[in-house]
Amino acid sequence: MSKMHVKLTVNGREVEGLAEPRTLLIHFLREDLRITGPHIGCETSHCGACTIDMDGKSVKSCTVFVAQADGADITTVEGLTNPDGSLGVIQEMFKEHHGLQCGFCTPGMITRAHRLLQENSAPTEAEVRFGMAGNLCRCTGYQNIVKAILASADMLNAAKEAAE
Amino acid sequence: MNEMTPPSSEERAKGLKGLGSARKRVEDVRFTQGKGNYVDDIRLDGMLFGDFVRSPYAHARVKSVDKSAALALPGVVAVLTAEDLEPLGLHWMPTLAGDKQMVLADGKVLFQGQEVAFVVAEDRYIAADAVELVEVDYEDLPVVVDPFKALEPDAPVLRDDLAGKTEGAHGPRRHHNHIFTWEQGDREAAEAVIAEADVVAEEMIYYHRTHPCPLETCGCVASMDKVSGKLTLHGTFQAPHAVRTIASLISGIAEHNIRVISPDIGGGFGNKVGVYPGYVCSIVASIVTGKPVKWVEDRMDNLMSTAFARDYWMQGRIAATKEGRITGLWCHTTADHGAFDACADPTKFPAGFMNICTGSYDIPVAYLSVDGVYTNKAPGGVAYRCSFRVTEAAYFIERMIEILALKLGMDSAELRRINFISKEQFPYHSALGWEYDSGDYHTAWDKALAAVDYDGLRAEQSERLKAFKRGETRKLMGIGLTFFTEIVGAGPVKNCDILGLGMFDSCEIRIHPTGSAIARLGTISQGQGHATTFAQILASEIGLSADDITIEEGDTDTAPYGLGTYGSRSTPVAGAATAMAGRKIRAKAQMIAAYLLEVHDDDVAFDVDRFAVKGAPERFKTMKEIAFAAYNQPIPGLEPGLEAVSYYDPPNMTYPFGAYVSVLDIDVDTGVVDIRQFYALDDCGTRINPMIIDGQIHGGVTEALAIALGQEIVYDDMGNMMTGTLMDFFIPTSWETPNYVTDFTVTPSPHHPIGAKGVGESPNVGGVPCFSNAVHDAFKSFGLTQTHMPHDHWRIWRTAKELGLHG
Amino acid sequence: MSLVRESLANDDLRFGVISPWNEGDVTCLAASERRSSAQNKPVAIGASDWEETHLIPGAFDYHRPASVAAATALLAEHGDDARVIAGGHSLIPMMKLRMADVPHLVDLRDLTDLRGISVADDVIRIGAMVTQHEIISDERLAATAPILREAALQIADPQVRYAGTVGGNVANGDPGNDMPGLMQCVDAGFELAGPDGIRVVAARDFYESAYVTARADGEILTAVLIPVPPEGAGWAYEKQKRKIGDYATAAAAVTIAVEGGRCTSASIAMTNLSDVPVWAETAAGALAGGPLDADSRTAAVAATLDVIDPAADNRGPVEFKKHVAGIILRRAIDRAAARAGLGEKT
To answer: Which of B23, B244, B259, B385 is an active site residue?
Structure first.
């Protein structure tokens, strides 16, 4: 079947490409755009390793056709690094609190955590665990991921207060 | 203290971030930015993509394979079958366990999901389309998935290739589906002791089949360069050097012309030790097409065809005096290996270290026998943080202890205490042949039970049970106890080898003129943080800051030979090599320092990060100064440069241990389990990085939670695999997973250069019996002795029903 | 007593090695009853039903119509070869497994008519493309029909809830989805737009068998219409599952209308306990007219168990599911009653 032209914004940059409509967004990001942060860990939409932020929502990019993403505004974990190359708050807190081991779930985790903290800037531990339940991890047992996200919330809120 | 006061040795040591530092991980900078480099991130010019046609049948003859429609699809470059591999002798390959397995179906298939044909195409979408177009004509054969049925006289014959072979790799074979029998200990003595014992408990303990399921599946990129004659193989390899040697042996390509690279690996857990058909087919496809070929399996492929874990039926008898002193242990295990024995075990141990099944207890007489059996299921058995079957052994003995305690009418905490190997007995020779290096079990046990207020928990449990019987609640409280002894750090070359490759490991260090360093090891991290922790070992040995030491692993062109990372062996073996290489550096540095300070070698002493003149500490040379001098000074009797390599052959295994306690509240109507608390005390000897140890415990106990409470690989009677996706293969989310409390004692290993024992697998070894014992404990007062895992909702419901709790 | 069946020679023993249940009237899951692990659909064994490829869907032509009329025109033009996609989190997994073959994919993304929630005096209108996340976040819905939020929070995980739509959840006919049973409980109507115009089919009349509904091939479900519950009504959605993200082992939706300390009407619907959602009309009737005493609740549960027909799967055998269904339903009744001021248990 023939390819279609798609145009999207990814991490602040406008990109375009030619892809078959059936191309999964995760493959378009990884293969066509060479954005390899989001990963593939399953094929039944369970693991969340492919999670991106699309039009202000946490979305599993393995369950979206690139055709559906035409015109979308996407952020992946790469887009959460500061412009000067330093780690963003959530990235820094994951490092500070040992919230990762093999790193494979980490891009999806951090991207989801970013949106979670936009939804709720001061979550309880239970709200963090509930809000992160779409992202599986085999290495950490989640405990330090939760710590990292709660610490990120504290840091972001402190920065907001300081700015006000 | 002012600027003029020199920093104390404590301050200098802290600045090095050596042993004991909760140093933050250097890996995290790239991983948190999505800049890791995993196999599927690799792209080479002209790269093709491979995918498998797999068998729907668990047992069938392959009558024909029609590739024509697939080959006609634009973009398809090749379709390989066994016929194409046969001229290269690659349609079968040796396994790590002395067996052989089909790379592609050769006349028949033996398990659902077995590889039949390998499609190579220009991209993965075309490869997927082409897989659908390959037509295979099967004639199905009778299936056997029950290892006991497989040993019946009229059981279907699985391995036509072994017809008439009464000798296997591990001794005589007594049946067409029998693989080996392995015995340890003294059968006669054990049976005699059991026959005359005051009390004997007997039970069948089943550790069900499950799977390590790392989040990244297996894969590789094979690239044969026809001009240079060199094969480069990137892949998910927990043992890259072993893969290189095996690849050379089976392909005929000289080993110096093979470069194996393990990049970042997204979790291994033993799933990525062996050689899979996908690797072999990718290599062949690359040779045949002249282009790089990538193969990355999907999740169903991974769960259906790669190394599973466990599937051990362990019949146990344990004998004791009426006071509770254990006098003997007897175990017969039926081991279901699937269609091929592809276990990653040291050669002389076809049942791994199952003979650690006397556990933490001083049992004078014991006997173990293990029968390996073929069935129509995926090949494997040794994986998933098992330390070579230690998970099975620990589950076995910790269940037998609980069952014995029931029979004696005794508290199992006390039963353990009176049977522990005592501190004075170390090094301890177990009845099944191991020499445990060190331990202080009583101290750890007392610490653990005090930390959880064990007596308080029992009192609470008693009250809740009364409330249950009064009809006030439908929940039962269970307290899970476990005291496990691990055996890791394989291992001494005299008895530990993988396909003849001795299980030493290595470290090679090079110090640069400006005082930073690079060290390469024969191991490969899959998340354990070696780049962070091995630098810490070195920092303490050679007095350079860990931040100034780069650790590299995984490229066989540059890394010294090692047997890789699994079985918690990196710290015990490569960690020891690292310390020993560091000491060689320090020895040369001492001579350089003495030269620079114009004193005799023996007149300087090492102080954290420098050598100082004995008795005149204000006269010193820092390691940085010494490093430069190595490149700058013509020192008589010494070569320039500052580097060292150590290949370490461990004198023994190491024996980490732990005390775990869990509390569960179980709803007898719905089967839902609420994990109220989990306490894990681990003794891994010297603790290199406490933050990383805690991370290992959290992760491993979560794997144990999954295994004990619902995760399983299930086959139906036709050999259909029923749990092939994450819908049914239970991986807990952050919601189902509790917080863990970690604790520790430190009993250094007397034979390890830094006293460290390794810890990665302990939480799975100890976690599963801890959860399972808690479930059993909840129901024990209604008469339950043993019910098989996993303890998922419906099985707990059934247990409650059969005990008459549904009124 | 040991619950271990020692003898593996006994065919009743199916622990972990084979289908692990074979208890009295509980039958072993034979190969012919195998269900695809990704969906609850029965899948026969044989090469033709084997899932050859799992991650990459087959090719299709993609359409993004700008209006409902354009969408229905596409369905008319391509017939069986066309399917609509809303959030895609039911359809795309099936397409990746190649269990659904869709030569023409019609994306409803641009149909703004299908978005939006409106609450009038007597009826709530939820556009088919409204997501679970939007349902959870809508304060008017929380105030007028709180059972919707309670149920939606128990569906899947946060990412799926951002994408999954109410229309997709009710139109698919997947017995595992939560919204069908819920909509039957609240007596919702489904608005369908087709070439011949618009009609509304009651949720209680919509489901025929697994994946077979009253929607004609050329129709698109455009909205869900829910009568505003009466003042003081009680409600609850109770769901047991193995983990977050799983379909229900058993789920119950219960609503209770109350006047003067008595239940005037009640509605019960059960999920994933048959090949369609089960609206237990008679059972709910047993609750009406009384003070919801313990006996009436027990009777309602027993009557409901008579009309469900769960299938054995990896979650457990039939008897287990029936038992859990009873427990879950009772908890839902008790919570609904408590919310209606009729006490937890009497």
So the answer is: B385
Low-confidence ranges of chain B (pLDDT < 70): 1-3
Asked if C105 reaches chain A (Cβ–Cβ under 8 Å), the answer is yes
A156 shares a domain with A85? yes
- Write down the pLDDT at residue B3: 62
Q: Tens of pLDDT along C144-200?
A: 999 999 999 999 999 999 999 999 999 999 999 999 999 999 999 999 999 999 999
Helices (runs of H) and strands (runs of E) counted in chain C = 11, 14
* Enclosing domain of residue A40: 4-79
pLDDT in the model for residue C52: 83
Interval C70-78 mean pLDDT: 97
B contacts of C58 (beta carbons < 8 Å): 129
pLDDT at A2: 86
How many domains does chain A fold into? 2
Cα nearest neighbour of B734 on chain C = C244
All residues at 6 or more sequence positions from C232 whose CB lies less than 8 Å from its CB, including other chains:
C258, C340, C341
CATH of B309-490+653-802, one of 3.60.10.10, 3.30.365.10, 3.40.190.10, 3.40.50.2000: 3.30.365.10
Q: Verify whether residue B167 is a known catalytic residue.
A: no
Q: What is the pLDDT of residues A13-40, one digit of tens each?
A: 999 999 999 999 999 999 999 999 999 9
Domain(s) labelled CATH 3.30.365.10 in chain B stretch across 9-36+505-648, 309-490+653-802
Query: Taking the complete model, does pTM exceed 0.90, yes or no?
Result: yes
Q: Is residue C137 part of a domain?
A: yes
Q: How many CB atoms lie under 10 A from the CB of residue C240?
A: 24
User: Total domain count for chain C?
Assistant: 2
pLDDT at C13 over 70: no
Pick the CATH number of B9-36+505-648 from 3.40.50.300, 3.30.365.10, 3.40.640.10, 3.40.720.10: 3.30.365.10
Q: What is the mean pLDDT of residues A79-94?
A: 98
Q: What is the pLDDT of residue C344?
A: 58
Write down the pLDDT at residue B5: 77
Judged by CB atoms closer than 8 Å, whether chains meet at B527 and A102 is answered as yes
Q: Which chains touch B (3 or more CB pairs under 8 A)?
A: A, C
Looking at C227, C253, C274, the residue that finishes a domain is C227
CA-based nearest residue to C91, from C58, C66, C44: C58
Closest by Cβ to C57, choosing from A22, A48, A131? A22
Best to test chain C binding among B722, B735, B776, B780 (most C CBs inside 10 Å):
B722
Please state the three-class secondary structure of B719-771 as a single string: CCECCCCCCCCCCCCCCCCCCCEEEECCCCCCCCCCCECCCCCHHHHHHHHHH
Catalytic residue among B101, B184, B238, B696: B238
Same domain, C251 and C269: yes
Q: Which two tokens stand for residue C249?
A: 């082992």
- Contact residues, chain C, for B728 at CB < 8 Å: 37, 314
Q: Which C-chain residues 134-163 have CB contacts (< 8 A) with chain B?
A: 157
- How high is the pLDDT of residue C45? 39
Predicted complex ipTM? 0.98
On whether the CB atoms of residues B373 and B337 are closer than 8 A, the answer is yes
- CB-based burial label for C98 (10 Å; 0-12, 13-18, 19+): middle
pLDDT by residue (tens digit) across B331-355? 999 999 999 999 999 999 999 999 9
pLDDT tens digits for C213-262? Answer: 999 999 999 999 999 999 899 999 999 999 999 999 999 999 999 998 89
- Whole-angstrom Cα distance, residue A150 to residue A145? 9
Superfamily for B39-141+217-265+272-305? Aldehyde oxidase/xanthine dehydrogenase, a/b hammerhead (3.90.1170.50)
